[in-house]
Amino acid sequence: MMKLLLDRLLTTIPALIGVVVASFLLTRVLPGDTAAYFAGPAATPQAIEQLRQQLGLDRPLPEQFGHYVVDLAKGDLGKSLTTGQPVLSDIKARLPASAELTLFGLILALLIAVPLGIAAAVRQGTVVDHACRAIATAGVSLPVFFTGLLLIYVFYYILQWSPAPLGRLDVFTSAPRGVTGFYLIDSLIAGDGETFRASFSQILLPGITLAIFSLAPIARITRASMLSALSSDFIRTARAAGLGARTIIVTYAFRNAMLPVITTLGMVFSFLLGANVLVEKVFAWPGIGSYAVEALIASDFAPVQGFVLTMAILYIVLNLLIDLTYRVIDPRMRNAS
Amino acid sequence: MHRRQFLQSTSAAAIGATAPAVFTSASAQSRSETLLIVSESGPNNLDVMGVGTNVPGYEASWNCYDRLLTHEMKTLPDGSQYYERDKIKGELAEEFTIEPTSATFKLRKNATFHDGAPVTAKDVKWSLDRAVTVGGFPTFQMSAGSLTKPEQFVIIDDYTIRIDFVRKDKLTIPDLAVIVPAIMNSELCKKNATASDPWALEFAKQNTAGGGAYKVTRWTPGTEVVFDRNDTWVCGPMPKIKRIIWRIVPSAGNRRALLERGDADISFDLPNKDFAEIKGEGKLSVISTPYTNGIQYIGMNVTRPPFNNPKVRQAIACAIPYQKIMDAVLFGLAKPMFGAPPDKATEVAWPQPHKFNTDMAKAKALLTEAGYPDGFETTISFDLGFAGVNEPLCVLLQESLAQIGVKTTINKVPGANWRTELNKKEMPLFTNIFSGWLNYPEYFFYWCYHGSNSVFNTSSYQSKPMDAFIEGARDAAAAGDQVAYDKDVKAFVDLAFTDIPRIPLYQPFINIAMQKNISGYQYWFHRRLDYRAFVKA
Amino acid sequence: MTAAPARTDAAALPTAKRQTALMATLSHARHVIGENPVTGFSFGLLAILLLCALIGPSIVPHDPLSSDTAATLQAPSARHLFGTDQLGRDIFSRVIVATRLDMAIAIFSVTLVFVVGGLSGIAAGFFGGWADRIVGRIGDTIMAFPLFVLAMGIVAALGNTVTNIVIATAIINFPLYARLARTETIIRRDVGYVMAARLTGNSDLRIALTTIMPNILPLMMVQMSLTMGYAILNAAGLSFIGLGVRPPTPEWGIMVAEGAGSIISGEWWIALFPGLALMLAVFCFNLIGDGLRDIVDPQRRT
Fold first, then answer.
1. ipTM confidence
2. Mind telling me how many Å the CA of A252 is from chain B's nearest CA?
3. What are phi and psi of A136, to 5 degrees?
C-alpha cells in the first residue's frame, strides 16, 4: 500500500515541474509592467527603472527563474504586491474560505444530485428521467456569475431573506477561533450558535450557486452507474430472491453505484475550484480564487504562481485521496493490492 | 413593477421597522460609534512611503499619521466641506514661521505616538529624511516641492525643526501638507529596521507607526481594515467615531445594495448611474464635488499623422458628442469643460471650458481642409480599470467619429498595462484622466503640456511658446508677480485650446453616498476619506 | 470519463459494411429522437440558434451598435422587446446579433482542439513511447491548472482578442480530447481490421489516418458537442471579468457583465436576456451532446 502511494506520488512529479515552469513563463509574458504599475501615478522613467531593479525584474529570465525555484524550495512563494503580504500567508489565510465554500457547494450538490440520479435511473425513460436530465443540464448551463447575481437580487435585495453578500461573516460578528479554518465547523467546536448561524447564512447563496453548477455531472454519473448496477446479475438474483424494491435499490444497487460517483467527485471538485473564481468575485468571498484574479489583473506574478501551485498540489492530493477511498469502499481493490 | 417604485418600496422597508438582523441589541451601542465603509479595493501597504503603495493605502496613511502642516476647511455654498488651498495651518506644528530661505516649526509638546512616546524633532527629521531618500513616488512627490535632500531638515531643539529651502518655490509649503511627509515614530521604526531595510519599510507596511487620530488594529489584506480611534490624539478636535470598519466589496451592485439596505454607512466609488439614482431617491445623502485640477480628456498623439495636423485635432474636437457623454455616461455628474460662449474671455483659472461644441458639419469641413475628405482609420484606447465610464464614452465617440469618416477600433487596455502604454507614447487616440494634488494651473500644465514630456504629456506635445508661458507663470508665482502670472496663465490656456493636443471633456466628480445620519464629509485634494470629521447621529 | 474497454459499436465495423452501419445509425437516431422528446427539442433549439447566427444581423429590428441617448435604460416594450441599455441600444437586436460571435467562438475553439487534440491523442495511442509520454505530460500539466484561471492567464498574456479566446478555450480542452482519442486508439490498435490493414502493407501513418481515425470520429463528435457548451461559458466568463471582445461588439458574456451592476437598481433586463440566451445556447449543446451519445454509443446509455 505504501509503495503504491509512493509510486502514485512519483508519477505526479513531471506534471508538477510542468506547472512550475508553465506558471513562471505565463506570468512573465503577461503584458503589464509591474514596475510601472507600482511606481505610482507621477512616476518618472527613472523612478520606474529604480523600482524595476528593486523588484529584480531587470535580470534575465533564466536568472529570475532560478531565484524563483530556489525560493520555492525554501517554501517562499514570494510577496504579493497587491496585498503587500507574503503569498504563502495570504494563501494560508484564504484557502480555508475557498475550501469551505467548495466543499459546502459539493455536499449540497450531492444531496440533490444523487437522489435525482437514482430517481432517473429507477424510472428510466419516464417523465421523471427526462425532467432530472433537464434540471441537471439547465444547472450546468447557467453561467455561475449570472446565477450568483440573480440569487443576490432575489434573496438579498427583493426578499431580504439573505444577509448582505459581504464575504464569510457580517461585519459585527467576529470570526470563531481558528481550529480548522472552516467557520461552520469552528463555530460548532466553540459552541457558538450565533456565529454558526451567521456564517451559514453567508455561505448559503454562494454555496447554492456552486451546487447548481455541479448538479449535472454528479446526477449523470449516478444515473449511469445506477443503471448498470440495476441491470447486473446480483440485482437480478436479489430480485429473484424476493427482496423488496427499496432494499434492492438502497442497499445493493446504490452501494455498488457509489464507486464511479466518488471518482467523479474528484473531477467535480477541481471543476468547482475553477468556477469559484467567478463566484468569489460576485459574493466578495475572501478566497484564493478572487485573490488570483485580482493579482492577474494587476500583473502581480507571485500570487498567480502561488495560486496555481496550490491548486495543482490540491488536485494531486485530492486524486490520491480518492484512490484511497476507492480502495476502502471496494473490497476487490483492497485484495488486489 | 417600475424601478423607481421598486426602489422606494424596498428602501422604505429597509428604513422602516426592520432593522437589519445583524445588529443585535448588544452591538447597537457600538454601532452608533462605528462607521462601516465599503469600497472596491483596499490598501496594499499602510505606509505611503512604501514601494508601490496603492491609492487606498494613502487613505490609511492620511488617517493614521499626522503631518507638520495641514489645510484649513471652508464651507461651500451647498454646505459641503472643502479644503482651503491657500490656508495652511499647523497639525503637529503648534506654530510655524516662513522666511525667504527657510521655515521653522515648533512641535506640540503634548503630542505622542500610538505607543506613548513623545513626538520630537528627531522623529520629524527622520521621517522627512526617509521621504526624500527612499526613492520612487514619495521622493518624487517631495521633489515637486523642492524638498530633495536630508541636509534641508535641521533639528534646532527637541521640539523645533527648521527646513531650509534649496530654491524659492511656491509649492514647498503646500508639499508639506500632502500625504507623503507623514511623521513616523522613528524609535519604533529603527527598532524594526534591518541592515537591508534601514527605513523599516517592511515594518511600516504592516503597522501604523505614527501618532495620528486613528490606528489600524486589524488588517486582512483584500478583505477589511479596522481602524480604532487614538484617544490621546491632540493635533485636532477629538474625532467622534470610535471605530472605522472598511470592507472591500468588489461588486458595485452589492455596494449600492448595502447602502440602500442600511447595512453600510458610506461608499464613494459607485458608478455615476447609481449615484444619480440614489440622489434622485433622496434616501441617502450624496455629495458630489469636482476633482480639483482634474480633467477627463481625449488625447491625440501629435507626433504622427493624422493627429500632427492641428486641423484634424480641431475636427475631432468638433465631432465629440459632448452632451451625449454628459447624459448617458456621466448622468450629469460632472462639470462640462466644453461649449463656452464664443465671446467669453479666458480666465486665470484651471480647469475652464473650451469653446468647441458638437458640430458635425464643421468637423467634416475641417477634416476636408486638412486633406482627409474621406476620413481615416485609427484606434481608440482606454484604461479597462475605469471601464464603467471609459467604455461607453469610447463607444459614443466611435459612433460619432464614424459620421465624419473616421473609422475606429476600440482597444481595451488592462489596468496593469495602462501606465506602460502611456509611457510608450504610441497610442494615437485615447481617453484618460489627469488630476494634480496641488491645485495650480501651471502645475497641471507643467505635467501635461510642457516640452519636458513627462508621462502625463500623453500627446507628446512640444511647443516652445507653451514652455515659455508655463515657465514664466512658475517664475512669476515664485516672485509673487500677479500681473505677469495672470498673463502667462491666460496665454498657455489659450494656446492649449487653439493647438488642442488634448480635448478636455469634463471635470469629473468625486461622489460620496452615505446614510442620512452621517455628516462631516470633507473634500480633500487626495480625494480619499478623512475619518476624523465624520459624525454619526 | 474514459471509455469502457472492449466493446463493439456500430461505427467500429469494417469499411465494407460502413454503408449499412450508417443506415443503422440513422434509423437509430430517428428512434432515439422519437423516444426522447428532450433531444428533439434541443435540435429544434439548435436550428433556431443557427438561424440567428446565419441571418440574425439582417432580421433584427434595430442596429445593434447605434446608440440613442434619448431612449436609455428603457424597460422591455413593444418597440424594444428586451429593453435598451445604458447607451440606448436595443438589447433584443444585440442578443440576436451576438449569437453569431458566441457560436463562432465555440465552434472554432472546439474544432481547433478537435483537430489538434484528436491527432495528438491518436499519435499517442498509436505510436506509444515518447509520443505518448509527451502528449501525456502536456495533458497532465494543463489538467493541473485550474482551467478557467489558465484561460484567463492565456488571454491576459496574448492579448484581448477573439482569436486568443478561441486559442485559450482550445488549450484548456486539450487534455480531454487527447485522452479520449488516445484511449479509443489503443482499444482499436490491435483489433482485427487494423491488423488486416497492416498485413496488406499500409504504412502506420496511413492506418492511423484512414482506419483508426474514422472509427473514433463519432465519439469525438459527442465530445465536441458536450464541450461546445463549456466553450461558450468559458468565453462568457472571460468577458465577464473584462478579458473579452472589443466594445461595442455585442457578446453575451460582456452584456451580462455590463448589466450586472444594474440588476440591483432595477434594470434587470440588461443582464437577464443575454444571460438567458447564453443559458439557452449552452443548454442546447449539452442536451444535444447527451442525445448524440445515446445515438453513437447506445451501450453507455444502459
1. 0.77
2. 47
3. -60, -45
Peptide bond between residue B221 and the one before it cis (omega within 30 degrees of 0) = no
d(CA C190, CA C198): 10
- B264 and B315 assigned to the same domain: no
Q: HSE on the CB side for C16, CA within 13 Å?
A: 2
Are B203 and B56 part of one and the same domain?
yes
Residue B151 shares a structural domain with residue B246? yes
Interface of A with B in 15-34 (CB under 8 A): 30-34
B253: nearest CB among C87, C160, C260 = C260
CB burial class (10 A; 0-12, 13-18, 19+) of residue B82?
middle
Residue A266 lies in a domain: yes
Q: Are residues B498 and B527 in the same domain?
A: no
Is residue B16 in some structural domain? no
Counting the structural domains of chain A, the total is: 1
Domain that holds residue B186: 34-269+515-536
Burial label, B94 (beta-carbon count in 10 A; 0-12, 13-18, 19+): middle
Domain match, B500 and B524 both: no
List CB contacts (< 8 A) between B391 and chain C. Answer: 247
B317 conformational bin, left if phi > 0, alpha if psi -120 to 50, beta if neither:
alpha
Decide if B253 and C261 are in contact by the 8 Å CB cutoff: yes
Q: Report yes or no on B377 lying in a domain.
A: yes
The answer to whether B534 touches B239, Cβ cutoff 8 Å, is yes
- Using CB atoms, pick whichever of B273, B324, B412 lies closest to residue C246: B412
Which residues in B47-64 are b (16+ Cβ under 10 Å) and which e? Answer: bbbbbbbbebbbbbbbbb
* Interchain proximity A315–C143, CB inside 8 Å: yes
Cβ distance A31 to C156 less than 8 Å, yes or no, reads yes
- How far is the alpha carbon of C262 from chain B, nearest alpha carbon, in Å? 7
We report the CATH number of the domain holding residue A224 as 1.10.3720.10
* Interface contact B257-C242, CB threshold 8 A: no
- Inter-chain residue contact C278 with A267, CB threshold 8 Å: no
Please list the pLDDT of chain A residue by residue as tens digits (337 residues): 667 677 777 777 777 788 788 878 877 776 666 777 666 655 667 777 777 787 777 788 888 888 888 888 888 888 787 777 888 988 888 889 998 999 999 999 999 998 888 888 888 878 888 888 888 888 888 888 888 888 888 888 788 888 877 778 776 677 777 778 888 888 888 888 888 888 898 899 999 999 998 888 888 888 888 888 887 777 778 777 777 777 777 777 777 777 778 777 877 877 787 778 888 888 878 888 888 887 877 667 788 888 888 887 787 777 777 777 777 766 665 554 4
Q: Between B254, B256, B328, which is nearest C86 by CB?
A: B328
To the nearest whole Å, the CA of B431 is away from the closest chain A CA by 16
The structure's pTM equals: 0.81
The number of distinct structural domains making up chain B is 2
Instruction: Give domain C25-300's CATH architecture.
Output: Orthogonal Bundle (1.10)
| Chain B to chain C Cβ contacts (< 8 Å) | 77
Q: At residue B205, what are phi and psi to the nearest 5 degrees?
A: -65, -40
Q: What are the residue ranges spanned by the domains of chain C?
A: 25-300
| Residues B280-299 as b or e (16 or more Cβ within 10 Å = b) | eeebbbbbbbbbbbbbbbbb
- Residue A312's closest chain C neighbor by CA? C144
Residue A262: domain span: 87-336
Query: Does the residue A8 lie in any domain?
Result: no
Residue of chain A with shortest Cα separation from C143: A312
Q: Would you tell me which residues 70-99 of chain A have a C-beta closer than 8 angstroms to some C-beta of chain C?
A: none
A315 within domain boundaries: yes
**Which residues face B105 on adjacent strands?**
B96, B161
Those of residues 250-269 in C touching chain A at CB distance below 8 A are: 253, 256-257, 260, 263-264, 268
| Contact call for C286 and A228, based on CB within 8 A | no
Q: Which residues of A touch B261 (CB under 8 A)?
A: 156-157, 160, 164
Rounded CA-CA distance B364/B424 in Å is: 31
B469: in domain: yes
